[in-house]
Amino acid sequence: MTVAFWCVLIALILPYGCAYIAKFTGGKFSLKQNHDPRTYLDALEGLPKRAHAAQLNSFEILPGFIAAVVISDIVGNAQQVTLDVLAVVFITSRLLYIICYLADWATLRSLVWFAGFAIIVSYFFVSM
């Protein structure tokens, strides 16, 4: 397993950390809310609401990252160390993105999101 593949696993786990923050920082989540968690999550405010939004965005960007890692591995034109470094930088950008979302730093969050997206795009260019 390459570092880039391990980063795919990390990227898959990150949204669940956000979900935990969304559900349990408000102090109101219980098994009763688990019968209809979407309604509960839609009614959140403040930090839990931002954590839920970070969770959703983390799921949304996953397919692009996974595709970039797998396609670049299949093509095989890039050095593995380059792919691994890109993956680690992507995970770092996602962690920073989540921090910015939770802290309500909207402008910085958008810049970090764009950097993460640029990393995904760069996979295709280094694999040419």
UniProtKB/TrEMBL annotation:
Question: What SUPFAM superfamilies does UniProt report for this protein, alphabetically?
Answer: MAPEG domain-like
GO CC term (a single one): membrane
Question: Where can this protein be found?
Answer: Membrane
Q: Which residues form a coiled coil?
A: none
Q: Where does this protein chiefly localize? A: membrane
**Which UniProt keyword terms apply here?**
Membrane, Transmembrane, Transmembrane helix
InterPro entries noted in UniProt: MAPEG-like_dom_sf (IPR023352), Membr-assoc_MAPEG (IPR001129)
Matching entries from Pfam families are given as: MAPEG
Write out the transmembrane intervals: 85-103, 110-126
Q: Which domain of life is it from?
A: Bacteria
Q: Which PANTHER family match?
A: BLR7753 PROTEIN (PTHR35371:SF1), INNER MEMBRANE PROTEIN (PTHR35371)
Q: What is this protein called?
A: Membrane protein
